[in-house]
Design goal:
Oligomer: single chain
InterPro entries: Sig_transdc_resp-reg_C-effctor, Tscrpt_reg_LuxR_C, Uncharacterised_AroM, WH-like_DNA-bd_sf
Structural class: mainly alpha
Shape: elongated
Keywords: DNA-binding, Transcription, Transcription regulation
Protein name: Regulatory protein, luxR family
Organism: Tistlia consotensis USBA 355
GO molecular function: DNA binding
């Protein structure tokens, strides 16, 4: 999911390529379905935080962050009900908390965690934004317990002259973060060539988080059903032995009738134990149980 309009063939293929493993994905955008008038009405006021994104037409627009955050929350609520193994919010600049039952990679939080882990107390990090106004808006960069230098650079994707200007301003930094997912790896390499400093894109940080999450999903799918049950998050009323047996067979893919035959109990008894177990675990389906295991394993 991105904050503009899908599909984002300027972003998603490069991130998927960095993951280095096959995956099936569907794309959604927070501004999908909006016409030009609705998007124009979402332009930020002078005192509102802003986001820079792309529409399906290829046009780039500036929209109010609050408007996008509300649209994002509504779309995530819908996607959370559609049975995806994972949702990836490919953006930076949205600072709200989005609660989902489906495992969620929130681009802003991933980039925050990466930056916080890397920056030492006297570190000097240059941050490149798409819009000059975002430099004043991003006060959070000073809350990492480190000296994070904001170089007052503003770079729009594809403008080589302004990339060179940013590189000059960032020349004495130890590390450069290209903060928008709109920045490509090619643009990062151009700044590397100009500064001789390590440069990381938000795309690469998000792709790394996605790679780790997909590896965890693959690991879970290789576990025996009983091992999956062992990994269910603790809390609430524990499963009875019979409920555990039923859920183990359900996670093995058996329908209720075969579970009943395997355990030597009636089909109706299986339905009762299954319903009680699902209620205790706060899940509506086996797929949701798997997602809960993933959520409990997230750092």
């Amino acid at each position: 999911m991105t904050i503009g309009q899908a599909p984002r063939d300027d972003i998603v293929p490069e991130i998927v390529g960095m993951v280095g493993r096959p995956l099936t994905n569907a794309e959604f955008g927070a501004l999908d379905g909006l016409d030009a008038a609705a998007i124009a009405a979402a332009a930020p006021a002078a005192d509102e935080e802003s986001l820079y994104t792309r529409l399906a037409s290829g046009e780039h627009v500036v929209v109010a962050a609050g408007f996008v955050e509300q649209r994002t929350a509504e779309l995530l609520e819908r996607l959370d009900r559609e049975g995806f193994d994972l949702i990836v919010l490919i953006t930076t600049g949205l600072f709200g908390h989005f609660a989902t039952r489906t495992p969620l990679i929130n681009g802003q939080r991933v980039v925050d965690a990466w930056l916080e882990a890397l920056v030492v107390e006297d570190g000097r990090v240059g941050v490149v934004y798409p819009l000059k106004r975002q430099i004043a808006e991003r006060h959070y960069l000073h809350s990492h317990g480190a000296t994070i230098r904001n170089p007052r650079a503003a770079v729009l994707a594809g403008e080589s002259g302004r990339l060179e200007e940013a590189a000059r301003q960032l020349g004495d930094c130890e590390l450069i973060l290209m903060h928008s997912v709109g920045y490509t790896e090619d643009e990062a390499q151009r700044i590397v060539a100009l500064t001789g400093k390590p440069v990381v894109t938000a795309r690469r940080v998000i792709a790394g988080a996605l790679r780790l999450q997909l590896a965890q999903i693959s690991e879970l799918r290789e576990l025996a059903p009983a091992e999956l049950v062992d990994r269910l998050p603790a809390g609430g009323e524990p499963l009875t032995q019979r409920e555990r047996e039923v859920i183990t067979l359900v996670l093995d893919g058996l329908p209720n009738k075969l579970v009943a035959r395997e355990l030597g109990i009636s089909h109706r008894t299986v339905e009762i134990h299954r319903a009680r177990a699902m209620s205790k675990l706060g899940a509506a389906s086996p797929a949701e149980l798997i997602r809960r295991i993933l959520l409990s394993a997230r750092p």
